Description:
Number of helices: 12
CATH topology of the largest domain: TIM Barrel
Largest sheet: 8 strands, parallel, barrel
CATH architecture of the largest domain: Alpha-Beta Barrel
Mean pLDDT: 88
Distance between the termini: 38 Å
Radius of gyration: 25 Å
Shape: elongated
CATH class of the largest domain: Alpha Beta
Low-confidence stretches: 1-27, 426-435
Amino acid sequence: MNKPVIAGIAALLLHVLLIFGTPGPVAALEHHKSISVNIDGLPVSFDTQPAIRDGRTMVPFRALAEALNVNVTWDAATQTVRAKFDNTYIKLQIGNPRAYRNNLAVTLDVPPAISGGRTLIPLRFFSESFGCKVKWDNTAYEINITSPPKTMAVIGFYALGDSETSSWRDLFTRNYPDTSEGNTGALSGLALGWYSLDEQGNLLTQSKTGWQRPEGWEKVLQVAGRYRLNSEMMVHLTDKDSTIYNLLNNRTAVTGAVNAIKKEAMLYHGVNLDFEGLGWRDDDDKLITVKNNFSQFVTLLANELKKDNHNLTLTLHAPNSAYQGYDYQALGKQADRIIIMAYDYGTKPEPVDLVVEAVERARSVVPSEKLVLGISIPSETPESLLIKIGIAKRYNLNGIALWRLGLLTDEMWKIIKQSSTPRTVLNVNSLDSKN
């Protein structure tokens, strides 16, 4: 874990309250105006309002620990708190100024105490132990905590742009065909938006929706392999004019599409299926048919891809979108991961409450480790991007997916690099080694 960089002023005085339902000595609290606490820009809700003790800010910790995915246990007999995150382990005891971090003794400024059945521990010790950065905003009376970088999948959508929005230049920070490491170290893989289908099941490299496989596409794959980036062939199709509906209702077309995708997938590490617009304005009977047909198509494709050890990613409209033609539970059983397109809600930046709702609804039927939060870069600012990444971290998702390369600013790349460590999920090989 990275060593924390703790703010050098009032943040050093902050403390955290660890919640447990055990009785104990009462600590005197000085009540000041309301204090808010944010982690990665997201507010933390507490059952007890933060307060001041001996000039130190105290906040309930159970919600804080859960928001940071820190595992905590309480030993009532010895009044001992134990917390673990990654390779860091801490132990504190009520009334004892000596704490332990990975079995090394640390003297605390203020010993843990109990107030109203809640256990209080120093925020400085907690922050240093688990790699958090802490800032105190005296004007807003606000505590802002930045969690350490999380290892996760970071997927970049790579699609045809122009001289101003070039995916190549954004990724390699050079004009085609020159390359450098550029921003490749911030990503784990690429979803290459080069393919579509017609309703007869033919695989297209030039589509009506503008998805095209560019000249020199082989070089993109070769260079991606050189920089150890996974590559997924992305098949994009919209249900405009009922194209997807007609395709999925034609068994011959379905078989042809599955076989064509499987054959082309030999050039890649996996497939990313992006069928958009399903279920909009469909009545109950047709909606059921749409959901079942798409789930059956995904099952057929997943089974064929598994024979060649290829993974399948689905890029889906969010569960709380207008497009209800996706059975997340059924699809989650077949796909290796699902990218939730939690955007296009109508406002910019995308509303946090709706993004959180989308994630929570998806997590209710699909394991978190299979879910990836899709982020629409044109809808976000650097500040709101940090919050969206924070949602993925708080809900322990598999990672994030960025629509799209060519649209990120330098400040956004900085946020991504500071907030995440890219994890390679698929087997990495260059194009040459796959042929």
